[in-house]
């Protein structure tokens, strides 16, 4: 049986047994009025919310590789702006994690894997003509604390976000859920 078949079979039973009931929420708006950017690391699927005392329906969660906001007008920033203006998010959390794979990204290795899986060198070179530098586009970071601090600053200083939204920076230990505070958004607002 394939993964998709397993998922679809389980889902039929899930719905038939009304196993969704514990996950129903009052609305699509986050109960705790917060939106969080965190990493897509498999260890954080549940840990990223449970360790912050956030349940289903409490928070809007945006996940990507490394919890990195790579462009001030990219999709992550767009999602944060929509969350603040349309989905009642009054606070933002940027949460990276220790032992993040993005701190060890080797763009040469990724490009080689692309070629091994059928992407042509011609297509990779075409990126240059489109103005995309593969090394910088796929590059991660060396220090997760610096990365989180950088992203918090980008969000705090974004021209389209109101200046009264606290932007917090955290780093989570993916083994224990222990948090390290990088930026206290309340203190930043106090000036």
Automatic annotation (TrEMBL):
Cross-referenced SMART domains: Pro_CA
This protein's record includes keyword Lyase: yes
Protein name: carbonic anhydrase
InterPro entries linked to this entry: Carbonic_anhydrase, Carbonic_anhydrase_sf
Enzyme class: lyase
Cofactor(s) needed: Zn(2+)
Record-linked SUPFAM superfamilies: beta-carbonic anhydrase, cab
Domain of life where this protein originates: Bacteria
EC number(s) given by UniProt: 4.2.1.1
Taxon lineage: Bacteria, Bacillati, Bacillota, Bacilli, Lactobacillales
Keyword Isomerase: no
Protein family according to the UniProt entry: Belongs to the beta-class carbonic anhydrase family.
Organism: Streptococcus moroccensis
Keywords of the record: Lyase, Metal-binding, Zinc
Reactions performed catalytically: hydrogencarbonate + H(+) = CO2 + H2O
Molecular function via GO: carbonate dehydratase activity
């Amino acid at each position: 049986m394939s993964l998709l078949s397993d998922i679809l079979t389980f889902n039929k039973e899930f719905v038939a047994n009304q196993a969704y009931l514990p996950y129903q929420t009052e609305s699509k708006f986050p109960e705790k009025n917060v939106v969080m950017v965190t990493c897509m690391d498999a260890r954080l699927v549940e840990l990223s919310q449970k360790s912050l005392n956030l349940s289903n329906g409490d928070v809007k969660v945006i996940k990507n590789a490394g919890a990195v906001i790579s462009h001030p007008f990219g999709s992550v920033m767009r999602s944060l702006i929509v969350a603040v203006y349309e989905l009642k998010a009054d606070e933002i959390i940027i949460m990276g994690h220790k032992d993040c794979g993005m701190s060890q990204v080797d763009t040469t290795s990724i490009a080689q894997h692309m070629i091994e899986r059928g992407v042509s060198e011609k297509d990779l070179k075409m990126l240059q003509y489109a103005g995309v530098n593969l090394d910088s586009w796929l590059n991660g970071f060396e220090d997760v604390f610096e990365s989180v601090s950088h992203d918090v600053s980008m969000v705090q200083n974004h021209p389209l976000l109101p200046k009264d939204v606290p932007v917090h920076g955290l780093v989570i230990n993916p083994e224990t859920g222990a948090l390290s505070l990088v930026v206290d958004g309340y203190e930043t607002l106090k000036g």
